[in-house]
Automatic annotation (TrEMBL):
Protein name: Major facilitator superfamily domain-containing protein
Localization of this protein: Membrane
Biased composition regions of type Basic and acidic residues, renumbered to the chain: 1-12
Annotated region (Disordered), positions in chain: 1-22
Keyword Membrane: yes
Pfam families: MFS_1
Taxonomic path: Eukaryota, Fungi, Dikarya, Ascomycota, Pezizomycotina
C-alpha cells in the first residue's frame, strides 16, 4: 500500500560517499539515530510553530501586515534547500552537508530570536528553512545508505512520523510558549538543541573516504537554476504581499515584479532545457503520464489548505478575543483532522485498490465545507462550527493522500527522487501562496470596511492604522468602536473561505482528467 509516508526517495549521493558495511546488518549508530529523530521533530515543529504566533510577533514590531513573511521566508528557504542537498552531498559527502544543515538551522533560530525588526526575523526564518530541509530530506537519504534494505522502510517511517508529530504540536506549542516565556526565548531555545544535533552528528556519523578517480567529474550543482528559481519564487511572494496596497509606488512595484517573474521563469526554463545536464526540474517529466497536472493540483490544494489555516489565528484573536496560547490550542483540530484524513483515506485505498472516486468525493467534501464556512463564519459562528475547518482539512488530506498514490503509480522508472522532490516543492509553493495572497486580500477588504465604518477623519485614519498594525489594539478602544472593528473583520473574513473554495474548484477538473493508474 502506497501513501504519503511511503519511502520513494532513492539514495542520490555518489559512490564517493557510500557507507562501508554489510547489507545484512545495520550500520546506524543508536545515538545518531536518536538525534536524527530530534532534528526531524525540530524541523517539523518549527515549520508550524510560527503559524500560531506570526501575527503576535509582527504586532510586537508594529508591522502586523508583514507577519506572513515569517511563514513565507521559512518555506522559501525550505524550497531552495530541498533540491540543493542531494547535489551538494554528491560533492562534499553526507557528513559535511548534514553538519551545515544543523548549523544553518541553529543560526537561523538564534537570528530570529535576537531580531530587532521583522526583516531580520524573516531572514532568520529563511536560514532556518534551508537548514530544516536537510534535517529531514538528507537524513532520509543517509538512512537508506546506512541501513540494510529490510530496515530502511521502518527507520524512514519513524523519521516521517516524528516530523509529523513535530508539525502537529508546533502550532499549539507556539501559542502556549509565546504567552509563557515569550516568542524570542521560544525561538532561541531551539538553537542549543540544533547545536546538540550538530555535536552528536559530528562525533557519531562516520566520515567515509572518497572512492574512484579523484579527477572524475563531479555532478553539476545547477547553481544558475537554483538562483533563477529563488528569484522567481521570491518575486512571486513579494508581489502577493503588495496586492493589499493601492499606492502609486506599489502599482509600479507590482508591474516591475511581473516583468522580473516573466524573465526569471523564462530563463529558468531555458536553463533546465539546454544549459545543464542535471536539471532541478526536467521539463519532459511534466509531460509524462500527466505528472505536471498532479503538481499543479498540489499547488491549488495546499494553497486552499494554508489559506484557511493562516487566517484562523487572526479570527480567534479579533473575533473571540482569545489569548495567543488559547488560540494555539484551537489549532489542535488541524493536526487531528490531518492524521484522521490521511489514515482513513489510506485505509480505504488499501481495501479497494482504487483512489480516483475517493479523490473526487473528498474534494467535494472540502468544497462543501468551505461553502458552509463562507455562509456561517461571517455571521459570528458558534463553537461547534469549528467543524467546518476540521472537515475541510480532513478532506483536503484525503485529496493529498489519493493524489500521492496516483503519482506513485505513474512515476517513470529511475525518476522517484526527482519526482518526489518536485512534488514537495509544489506543495511548498502552494503553502507560500496561501500564506501571502489570501491574507493580503483579506487585509485589503478589512481596510476598506474599516474606512466605510469609521470614516476618513484624521482620528479615524489613525485608529485604522493602529488596528492594522496591532491585532490586540482593538481591546484599548471604547466598546462601540470595538464592536465596529469586530463587525468589519467578520465581514471581510468571508473572502477567505471563498478563495479556498475557488482553489479546490480548480483541482476538480485536474482529478477528473487524470487517469486512474493500477496499484501494484
Amino acid at each position: 500500500m502506497i501513501d504519503e509516508t511511503t519511502p520513494l526517495r532513492e539514495a542520490e549521493c555518489g559512490p564517493d560517499t557510500t557507507f562501508q558495511g554489510s547489507n545484512d546488518r545495520s550500520n546506524v549508530d543508536r545515538a545518531f539515530l536518536l538525534i536524527t529523530q530530534l532534528g526531524a521533530f525540530l524541523a517539523g515543529a518549527d515549520d508550524s510553530f510560527f503559524i500560531s504566533t506570526h501575527d503576535h510577533i509582527a504586532s510586537s514590531f508594529g508591522q502586523l501586515p508583514l507577519g506572513s513573511w515569517l511563514l513565507t521566508a521559512y518555506n522559501m528557504g525550505y524550497s531552495i534547500g530541498l533540491p540543493m542537498y542531494g547535489r551538494v552531498c554528491d560533492v562534499y559527502g553526507y557528513k559535511r552537508t548534514l553538519l551545515v544543515a544543523y548549523a544553518l538551522f541553529s543560526v537561523g533560530c538564534a537570528l530570529t530570536g535576537l531580531a530587532g525588526n521583522i526583516w531580520v526575523a524573516s531572514t532568520g526564518r529563511a536560514v532556518s528553512g534551508i537548514g530544516a530541509a536537510g534535517m529531514v530530506d538528507l537524513i532520509s537519504v543517509i538512512l537508506t545508505d546506512m541501513a540494510p534494505p529490510k530496515e530502511v522502510a521502518i527507520l524512514r517511517s519513524y523519521l516521517m512520523m516524528v516530523a509529523t508529530i513535530g508539525a502537529t504540536l508546533g502550532a499549539p506549542l507556539g501559542g502556549i510558549l509565546a504567552d509563557w516565556i515569550g516568542w524570542r526565548w521560544s525561538s532561541l531555545a531551539q538553537s542549543p538543541v540544533g547545536i546538540l544535533c550538530f555535536a552528536v552528528a559530528a562525533r557519531r556519523l562516520p566520515s567515509v573516504p572518497k572512492k574512484g578517480d579523484s579527477d572524475e567529474r563531479r555532478p553539476d550543482l545547477d547553481i544558475p537554476g537554483l538562483c533563477l528559481l529563488m528569484v522567481t519564487i521570491g518575486s512571486i511572494m513579494i508581489l502577493c504581499h503588495t496586492l493589499g496596497e493601492s499606492e502609486p509606488q506599489s502599482r509600479l512595484m507590482q508591474i516591475s515584479l511581473l516583468v522580473v517573474i516573466l524573465i526569471s521563469s523564462l530563463l529558468f526554463g531555458l536553463n533546465e532545457k539546454y544549459c545543464t545536464k542535471h536539471p532541478l526540474m526536467p521539463l519532459w517529466l511534466f509531460r509524462t503520464n500527466g505528472i505536471g497536472f498532479v503538481f499543479m493540483g498540489q499547488i491549488f490544494t495546499t494553497f486552499s489548505q494554508f489559506s484557511s489555516i493562516v487566517t484562523l489565528m487572526g479570527f480567534f484573536v479579533r473575533v473571540w478575543n482569545h489569548s495567543t496560547s488559547m488560540s494555539g490550542l484551537f489549532f489542535m483540530i488541524i493536526p487531528v483532522a490531518a492524521v484522521m484524513g490521511s489514515g482513513i483515506y489510506g485505509r480505504l485505498i488499501g481495501r479497494s485498490g482504487k483512489y480516483k472516486k475517493l479523490a473526487i468525493g473528498s474534494l467535494a467534501g472540502g468544497m462543501l465545507s468551505f461553502f458552509l464556512m463562507s455562509l456561517r463564519w461571517p455571521e459570528d459562528p458558534s463553537f461547534w462550527e469549528l467543524a467546518y475547518p476540521f472537515f475541510a482539512i480532513f478532506t483536503i488530506y484525503g485529496v493529498l493522500t489519493t493524489q500521492f498514490v496516483g503519482l506513485s503509480a505513474s512515476i517513470p522508472k529511475g525518476m522517484n527522487a526527482t519526482t518526489t522532490t518536485i512534488y514537495y516543492l509544489s506543495q511548498q509553493f502552494g503553502m507560500m501562496l496561501g500564506f501571502t495572497l489570501t491574507p493580503a486580500v483579506n487585509r485589503k477588504i478589512f481596510t476598506y470596511k474599516l474606512k466605510q465604518k469609521l470614516g476618513t477623519s484624521t482620528q479615524a485614519r489613525q485608529t485604522i492604522r493602529s488596528v492594522l498594525k496591532d491585532e490586540r489594539f482593538v481591546s484599548s478602544l471604547p466598546g462601540p468602536l470595538q464592536l465596529a472593528v469586530r463587525t468589519c473583520f467578520l465581514q471581510s473574513f468571508r473572502i477567505v473561505p471563498i478563495i479556498c473554495l475557488a482553489g479546490l474548484s480548480l483541482v476538480l477538473p485536474i482529478i477528473c482528467y487524470l487517469p486512474e493508474w493500477p496499484l501494484e
